[in-house]
Amino acid sequence: MNDYEIEFKNYLKERGLKFTPERALILKAVFSLHKHFDIDQLWEKLHKKDNRLSRATIYRTLPLLLDCNLIQETLRCQGRVRYEHIFGHQHHDHMVCLKCGKVTEFREEKIEKLQEEVCKRYNFKSVEHRLGIRGYCQKCQKKLR
Amino acid sequence: MNDYEIEFKNYLKERGLKFTPERALILKAVFSLHKHFDIDQLWEKLHKKDNRLSRATIYRTLPLLLDCNLIQETLRCQGRVRYEHIFGHQHHDHMVCLKCGKVTEFREEKIEKLQEEVCKRYNFKSVEHRLGIRGYCQKCQKKLR
DNA sequence: TCGTAATTGAGATACAGTCTCAATTATACC
DNA sequence: GGTATAATTGAGACTGTATCTCAATTACGA
Ligand SMILES: [Mn+2]
Ligand SMILES: [Mn+2]
Ligand SMILES: [Zn+2]
Ligand SMILES: [Zn+2]
């Protein structure tokens, strides 16, 4: 059994919730998608395997996965919420190309540290943060010229 | 005439668009709100002065104000897009309290610099960035204890 | 195996945001 | 000032994402 499955089962058990086949399928799909995804992309992937699984169940399951830190919201794109699995991955931030939509992940230790300093300065207890840089990727800059 | 009004008029003129009384009202309201606001708060404020002004006109005007950098989107709150006027103000980032919703603005020069470095490293041409830290403000931390 | 509370799918509903269209109006030009 | 014309407006219809309802089903502890 995968680590993320153990994690999710514990989370559910502690709260008296059930580990259903539907939730198992969704969990598996979430960790087999290795890019950022939105609900429709997830539904399409799941629909192929079990065409009874309803959108409502996906909408009901994602908040659970968020709450136990298996996934997180990333930048919104055209009004849609996008997600990525984070369990087993290091925290990182994002750059998004305004032309082609390409997402680049980066981690800058110094920025992480400075954020902690800022929080200390304001007596703010940080839970999470999100840094998104919008602009143009290398390829799209060339095309614009 | 205010600087922001000159700015907006120039923007409109360059594009063959009109400076209408409705747009003037919206612009004025946007710069008289000194906190982050959403469309409904803006509509309420405007409705008092001119109850004919329609929501559609507000929805049509805000993208113009965004495009000429008079305002910017800030963090979303409960599914609603929130805005703040930025013309004449220095760029800053935000901390949001998950309990009381309090927004604290901060500017950390070193973080701004480091972001530029990261962009250079990836040959990414930055247009704008948004850093949001979610957590608990000083008051709400005390209440939780 | 049983009892029960959680969960499900399907469709209804909510609601922010966009679009349509006929009537109105700002502005460039004379 | 007057006129032509393309932009703009309000009202309400419409879209699409996300949530809710409810009867039927099911996971799981005892
Ligand atoms: Mn990522
Ligand atoms: Mn601000
Ligand atoms: Zn690109
Ligand atoms: Zn607070």
Structure description:
- The structure is a homodimer of 145-residue chains.
- Chain A is an alpha+beta fold.
- Chain A folds into 2 domains: 1-89, Winged helix-like DNA-binding domain superfamily/Winged helix DNA-binding domain (Arc Repressor Mutant, subunit A, Orthogonal Bundle), CATH 1.10.10; 91-145, Ferric-uptake regulator, C-terminal dimerisarion domain (Dna Ligase, domain 1, 2-Layer Sandwich).
- Chain A is 47% helix and 21% strand.
- Chain A has 6 helices and 6 strands, in the order H-H-E-H-H-E-E-E-E-H-E-H.
- In chain A, the strands form 2 sheets. In chain A, strands 1-3-2 form a 3-stranded antiparallel beta sheet. Chain A has a 3-stranded mixed beta sheet with strand order 5-4-6.
- In chain A, strand 2 (71-73) and strand 3 form a beta hairpin.
- In chain A, helix 2 (21-32) crosses helix 4.
- The longest helix of chain A is centred in the middle third of the chain and has 13 residues, at 55-67.
- Chain A is flat.
- The model of chain A has no long low-confidence stretch (mean pLDDT 93).
- The interface between A and B is medium-sized, with 33 and 33 residues.
- Strand 6 (125-136) of chain A pairs antiparallel with strand 6 of chain B, so a sheet runs across the interface.
- The complex binds manganese (II) ion (MN) (2 copies) and zinc ion (ZN) (2 copies).
- Residues 36, 74, 84, 92, 94, 105 of chain B line the site of one manganese (II) ion.
- Chain A binds a DNA duplex (30 and 30 nucleotides) through helix 2 and helix 4.
